[in-house]
Amino acid sequence: MASIERTAYPRFKRTVTARELHELFTPSVGEIEWAKGLTRSAEHLLALVVLLKSFQRLGYFPDLYEVPVVVVDHVRGYLEMGAEVEAAHESDRTAERHRAWIRQRVGVVRDMGQARKLAEQAIHGAVQTKDNPADLINVALEELVRAGLELPGYSTLEEMAGRIREEVNAGFHAAILARLGPFERERLLGLLRVDSASRRSRFDDLKRPAGAASLSRFKEHLIHLIWMDELGQTQGWMVEVPTAKVAHFAGEAKELDAGDMKKVAIDKRVVLLACLLHTARIRGRDELATMFCKRMARLHKQARERFEALREASRVEAERLVDVFGDVLVGVREALGVSENEQPAGAGPDPIEQIWQRTGAAVLATLNEAGGVEDLSRAHEQVTAYHGDNYLPFLEKFYRRSRSVLFDLLDVLVLVPTTSDRTVLDAAEFLKANRRRVGEYIPDHAEGEPVDLSFASEAWTNIVRDRRRPSSLVRRHFEACVFSYLASELRAGDIAVDGSESYANLTEQLLSWEECRPLLAEYCAEVGLPNGAAEFTGELRRKLTETAAGVNAGFPANTDLDIVDGEPVLKRRKGRQRTDSAKTLEKLLLSRLPERPILDVLTRTAYRTECFRHFGPASGSDPKIRDTVGRYTLLAFCARSDSDRIGLFACSA
């Protein structure tokens, strides 16, 4: 069960700061006068005021010896009593009378029966979606405080949360078991059989992470996911079982090995295995989609690097071709200039045929000196191919090795659109239908319907379509294009993976209009919006008109806003120099902030915030380690990497 430190159950801190003493335990003048009117001795007066402030802080009555000494001394000082006065009751009857007076003043009712009933209802409602005992106890505390009831003891809430949690979980176990047939149970239990050769069980495979997005790991994980799907369609087993519960049951199984699982009762063992398999299938789809996106990103990176390398190499050829072209121009100019400068006196201009002959001879001579027409043509084609910034033609070369596994991925993952645009998915379906084609080209239509390539950019369209074949597609470029856009759509959330979590269709998780309609009036009242459609649009129009009028009126004095070509443009503000007063304030703050050792800072932070109460096992049970506070504090504030964490664990063990 959860320790009290991991819950919101009110209690005295180990160290009470001066600020907490002043804000929480300082009695007001009215409280002091009220207590003096009910008591006759200094001991009873001190005890009554101490109990009053303690109850206001905790919500229940502690024993007087449990109240920190600093709190008693603080209250004693405000009552102007000497150190010899002790907070005590002369009898149990007096103590009960004091508690009754305090309840009446604070306005809290003591009804343990009603408190237990209300706490049970709150825990029973919360345990449907929560499993951590600390969370269940916190829900019960919230309801008790809201109802104005005195809090029961922590052990009462702890026992109640454990009992209800066990009952509800047993109900979920029974529901899952009822959906499993004998064959499915046997298959799940078979996961725990240890292979004599490898000394391992298939149960360990359910916990295996995907690893890097290499091609071999991609293939292995794809086979692994197919194997898990063959074990059973777990979605049907988990119908009406909250996702948080399934995750908790799976987490419980994940912490055990095959030997420990065999020690669990057989019915619970089957349920834990079913939940672990369900979460493993979901995680497997997440990991496979992630590996696919990373794989496509890697292919694009390789194509871009290859393109840049070849473009750099072709730069020399481009410079050579420019020089050759310059030589051609010089030769042509000289050939044309003969008719004007080198003609004999009295001779007329050369016939056009002679000019052409001289020019052609000069051009051919220059081209031959540069390597010949064939060599220059090849160089020109190479430079033209790398001109611009389109590396996509090189993607097909690196895509070939991944082609088979990418098509297998389309067979395993069920992709669904999250928007009304289905063009990419339709292209993927067309791709699957033409998987067995091995030619360079494939038709751009299926059963008379053309493939919609509106999703593709101009750079892709230029290489996917061949001008010489207007009704065909370049097969490999088309495949690389579709897979690239599938990865892009998955990352953007426009395509979802059925049975996934990270790549799930988030729109299906939103509240439906039927669920929202009853809440609409209350919501509109809270945010100050009209409930009706006409009133709502009228109010928005009024506010927009007022805002526009205010902006228009202040525009002449607004130096940050400008209108450029009819569009409003906000100018970048220039930072102003720090004023002398700001510099003085900074020096004053630094002078009043004392230097403290890092261990002192960590100690003060841990005890004042009690952040360590949020750490611990996922089950909510007490951690089985020594010096819990010290370990958690070091891990939270000092660990910077995995190696640091390992070292801290080793040092504090």
Your description of this structure?
- The protein has 6 domains: 4-106, no CATH class; 112-178; 182-300, no CATH class; 414-509, no CATH class; 513-556; 586-652, no CATH class.
- It has 27 helices and 9 strands.
- It has helices at residues 18-24, 29-36, 42-58, 69-78, 92-106, 112-126, 133-147, 154-178, 182-189, 215-231, 234-237, 243-254, 258-262, 266-341, 352-369, 373-385, 395-399, 403-412, 423-433, 458-464, 475-492, 513-527, 533-554, 580-592, 598-609, 628-637, 642-652; strands at 415-417, 441-443, 445-446, 449-450, 465-466, 469-474, 495-497, 561-564, 567-570.
- The two termini are 23 Å apart.
- 23% of the residues are buried.
How would the global form be characterised? elongated
Distance between the termini: 23 Å
Main β-sheet description:
3 strands, antiparallel
Tell me the strand percentage band.
under 5%
Mean pLDDT: 86
- Helix content range: 55-70%
**Count of domains:** 6
Provide the spatial order of strands within the biggest beta sheet: 2-6-5
Q: Structural class, please?
A: mainly alpha
Using DSSP, what is the number of strands? Answer: 9
State Rg: 39 Å
Q: What low-confidence regions span 5 or more consecutive residues with pLDDT below 50?
A: 641-653
How many separate helices?
27
